[in-house]
Design goal:
Rossmann fold; 23% strand; alpha/beta; P-loop_NTPase; 5 strands; Helicase_C-like; single chain; coiled coil
Length: 132
């Protein structure tokens, strides 16, 4: 049984699912008003199937633009490793997985939405799981 989620979390996860379907792996998507923003922000959805994408991620992190980065891993352990690695080297990143409680998900998504913490690391199951 899937955990219960608030309507706000469901809406944000649906937006993330839509973004995943629109963007192929490592494709940069620019869209106006993503997550209700009024300025143009570059949105990057990365499907991290291996750690070969790290050089691409490093180039993104050194860019001087407003960038929101969502990193999606197949397994939650890989997502946790990436999040911890980014935090260890001084880059703020939030991490959510299928067992994260509702309050923590809302906090992570709110910070991502407001660009306070512009990197969200997650597992594929969170993005693709069916709504309940």
């Amino acid at each position: 049984m899937a955990p219960r989620r608030s309507k706000r979390v469901q809406e944000r996860l649906q937006k993330a699912r839509d973004k995943l379907q629109e963007a192929r792996a490592n494709e940069i998507v620019t869209k106006k008003n993503f997550f209700g923003k009024t300025n143009t922000t570059m949105i990057v959805v990365m499907n991290m199937t291996s750690y070969n994408e790290m050089p691409f991620l490093r180039r993104l992190l050194t860019a001087e633009q407003n960038i929101l980065i969502m990193i999606i891993h197949d397994y939650k352990a890989d997502a946790e490793i990436t999040s911890c690695f980014l935090n260890d080297i001084g880059i703020a990143a939030n991490y959510i997985h299928e067992h994260t409680n509702q309050r923590a998900r809302e906090y992570a998504l709110k910070n991502f939405d407001r660009e306070k913490i512009p990197i969200l690391v997650t597992s594929r199951k969170v993005v693709l799981e069916s709504q309940t």
